[in-house]
Design brief:
- The chain has about 325 residues and is an alpha/beta fold.
- It has a single domain (about 15-45, about 110-325), classed as 3-Layer(aba) Sandwich (Rossmann fold), CATH 3.40.50.150.
- It is about 35% helix and about 20% strand.
- The N and C termini lie far apart (about 50 Å).
- Bound molecules: S-adenosylmethionine.
- S-adenosylmethionine (SAM) binds near residues 135, 156 and 207.
Length: about 325
Amino acid sequence: TVQSNQVKSGQRKQLCKLVLDHFDKQYSEELGQLWTTAREVLLDPRCWQYGVMLNRFSESTELRQLLQTQDYSSLLPQDSGSLQCFVHQSQIRFPSQKHQPGQLKQYYLLNAASLLPVLALGVRDGDRVLDLCSAPGGKAVAILQSATPGLLHCNELDCHRWKWLAETLESFIPQALNDAVKVFNLDGRLFGQIEAGAYDKVLVDAPCSNDRSWLFAAPQQGALWLQERSKLPDLQTELLSSALAAIRPGGTVVYSTCTLSRAENSAVVERILTSCPNTELQDLGGLARSLSHHFTFDPNSKFGILIVPEKGRTWGPMFVAKLKKH
Ligand code: SAM
């Protein structure tokens, strides 16, 4: 059952000065004033908000009542489908539910901006879907809240994270869906060859500079990540290109990251559009407008939409682009 004694978010975290200096230089150039807005949020974990995504396979009236009495509001219009996420103005946080084998969890805590790629993918019942970089599985769970795909293949390269993914799915998805939902432990760059044209929709929630957590890296870890950072755009481009090869003509791919970095966002999409002539960028302006009362978007973002955290609406960073193959 859900406990009503909620914990305050934001344990004491140690800031990584090296990463901050790097971001200050790059993001003030790329985003100007918006970086000042985002910086204030990213540096203060005590103000971070959390969304509560309900599990439709483990409905609880008690939980809904609790959310109502605590002034949570629905992120999405109530009539918009089975995906339901509740958000709060303040940073109060529900307790995480422990994994208990054989028992479904009632909710998943997340940065509400993480739902944007899933909404952009727009999975319908019966779709053949691939979640190429899937661990720990938040977006796979959200996909299964929004529709019942004909199949959902969830892939993760890292063995440790792959186990975490399998555990997440076990905690949220009833066994009856086991035939449709499969977990893979492969390099996502292979799917374009081994599963060419097999899917209607692919999500590439790419490995990226995770701005939020990098800022609180231990000094050595921060230095290592920054050193490896320049390799990410090539990896991201290869993953996106593999995803495009894995969809049928007429299918769609959503590319997302949780960084503000232009090199990992619009530059990757631009590279793909230049090198794959049968690929067309889809407009996400309507989706952004429908959520503009919750999320702050970068008005200058190209080749996709970018949620920038702001005090009181601390969601993001999240970049999302949608591509269609002819
Ligand atoms: N989609 C996940 C979710 O919503 O919970 C988060 C995914 S995280 C941003 C990116 C993931 O990609 C990481 O778990 C990372 O281990 C994985 N990854 C890195 N390189 C990969 C590759 N070549 N193929 C597949 N997955 C990869």
